[in-house]
From TrEMBL:
Family label: Belongs to the CLN5 family.
Segment forming the signal sequence: 1-23
Molecular function GO terms recorded: hydrolase activity, acting on glycosyl bonds
Key word Glycoprotein present: yes
Gene Ontology CC annotation, any one: extracellular region
UniProt protein name: Ceroid-lipofuscinosis neuronal protein 5
UniProt KW keywords: Glycoprotein, Signal
Record organism: Dictyostelium purpureum
InterPro entries: CLN5 (IPR026138)
GO biological process: autophagy; cell adhesion; chemotaxis to cAMP; exocytosis; lysosome organization; proteasomal protein catabolic process; protein secretion; regulation of gene expression
Pfam families reported for this sequence: CLN5 (PF15014)
Length: 326
């Protein structure tokens, strides 16, 4: 799950060194509490079994709004989307959903909690990410009949051999991506990706890329359109946590007011003069030095695997999957 507006930190140079810095451990199972147990993301994932090589399987891109009630009020209120891959085995009549999500919800995957430990403020990250793979497609959740902004887009037909390969791939994705990461960090937009985001959308996009390498072919009229919020920063400097502890806590406390849109929140934070801004990535904090104009929004088309990006996109004849919503 993620808010579809990706935030990209546009860096003028690439950070190189890494300084380990840590307060209390991330995703401490005693301190991190899942407020809502998701029935569609069981802790013990059910196996999809092995598919017959001749099975005919239709693959869909699934998108649905994030609900405040279901997913916590932070991103729910901002009108984000959740995405997944749906598999419909025409041969057996069974359906399957593969998705990746923040284990403690997107809000917790994005921002830490400031907690009181024996009278001292501590930073608690509950930012684990996890694969949810269920032998079921919730037709109510993904159906535009019930939620106008939901959508189901046919992507390709594959066979059982390809689905078996995909299952291995999605399990390895789960293993190699244990941390949810909301923001992309680039040193230069569209050039070098310094820190990739790891969200439901990234999983979904990577799924279609993998299926392409397994032989799936897509209709090139299908184009993704995504929004990016860019922050302009100098090379982020890794900092020693213990030296910046109070400043880092002050930064995250300023983010506790989560009212308004994501742009409102970012503008508010940027507007606080004298407040150091930080980025947390894989256990390390980085100091950001923002440059004028500090922030920009970009809308970009992303072709599906194996398709060129059309030079001119005809919004009437193309099948555009909009991820723009603010
Ligand atoms: C976010 O983490 C906090 C701290 O563990 C927890 O109390 C809260 O329930 C979590 N939120 C959700 C929506 O899981
Ligand atoms: C799978 O999806 C198809 C198409 O929506 C539906 O007809 C079928 O009943 C579903 N299968 C199961 C086992 O729910
Ligand atoms: C808090 O204080 C109690 C009593 O002194 C101690 O047992 C506990 O380990 C402390 N907790 C932390 C997280 O330091
Ligand atoms: C399917 O989605 C609907 C709408 O979000 C939800 O109310 C329902 O509990 C879900 N069903 C299952 C079995 O997950
Ligand atoms: C995904 O990884 C978690 C551990 O991070 C594990 O508990 C879970 O079973 C894995 N899911 C699948 C489908 O392999
Ligand atoms: C499944 O699809 C792959 C890729 O198109 C193809 O190489 C393979 O022969 C197919 N297998 C069967 C049993 O049709
Ligand atoms: C590809 O998608 C376009 C737009 O939705 C549609 O008009 C066209 O028929 C599709 N082509 C194939 C081969 O399905």
């Amino acid at each position: 799950m993620k808010i579809i507006i990706s935030l990209i930190l546009l860096l003028l140079a690439t950070a190189t060194t890494i300084t380990k810095s840590q307060g209390i451990p991330d995703n401490d199972p005693e301190l991190c509490v899942q407020r809502i147990k998701r029935e569609d993301c069981p802790e013990t994932p059910s196996s999809w079994g092995k598919f017959d090589e001749d099975d005919v399987i239709d693959v869909y891109y699934l998108q649905a709004p994030i609900f405040e009630g279901m997913f916590g009020n932070f991103f729910g209120r901002l009108g984000g989307y959740h995405s997944a891959v749906g598999f419909y085995d025409i041969t057996t009549g069974q359906n399957y959903t593969a998705e990746y999500d923040a284990y403690y919800e997107v809000g917790n995957g994005t921002l830490p909690n400031i907690i009181d430990v024996n009278g001292t403020k501590e930073i608690l990250w509950c930012n684990a990410g996890i694969l949810c793979s269920i032998p079921f497609v919730n037709e109510t959740y993904w159906d535009p009949k019930y939620f106008s902004t939901a959508s189901k887009t046919f992507m390709a037909t594959i066979n059982g051999t390809q689905l078996n390969q995909y299952i291995e791939w999605m399990e390895s994705y789960n293993t190699t991506n244990p941390i949810y990461q909301t923001w992309d960090v680039w040193n230069n937009y569209g050039k070098d990706l310094y820190v990739p985001s790891t969200t439901c959308d990234d999983f979904t996009a990577a799924s279609f890329d993998f299926l392409y390498t397994a032989g799936a072919r897509y209709n090139c009229s299908t184009v993704f359109k995504r929004d990016y919020v860019n922050l302009f920063s100098e090379k982020p400097e890794p900092v020693v946590f213990t030296e910046h502890r109070d400043e880092i806590i002050r930064f995250y406390e300023s983010l506790m007011d989560r009212s308004g849109s994501i742009l409102d929140i970012i503008e508010r934070i940027i507007g606080i003069v004298g407040l150091n801004k930080y980025l947390y990535y894989q256990g390390d904090y980085y100091l950001l030095k923002l440059n004028w104009p500090f922030m920009g929004v970009k809308y970009d088309y992303a072709p599906v695997a194996g398709c060129p990006l059309p030079e001119t996109i005809n919004e009437q004849t193309s099948n555009i999957i909009h991820m723009r919503n603010y």
